[in-house]
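Worked example

This section walks through a single chain of length 30. The input is the sequence exactly as stored; nothing has been trimmed or padded.
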Amino acid sequence: MEDDESRMTKTGMETFFGSCVLMLCTSRLP
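Given that input, the structure is written out below as tokens.
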């Protein structure tokens, strides 16, 4: 159970981080 929950949390953080990076890259474009 703990492993599964941790996995979901890690995936959520990665998705959130990816979204932030994508937004930053997009905002850098002219």
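What to look for: The chain has a mean pLDDT of 84.
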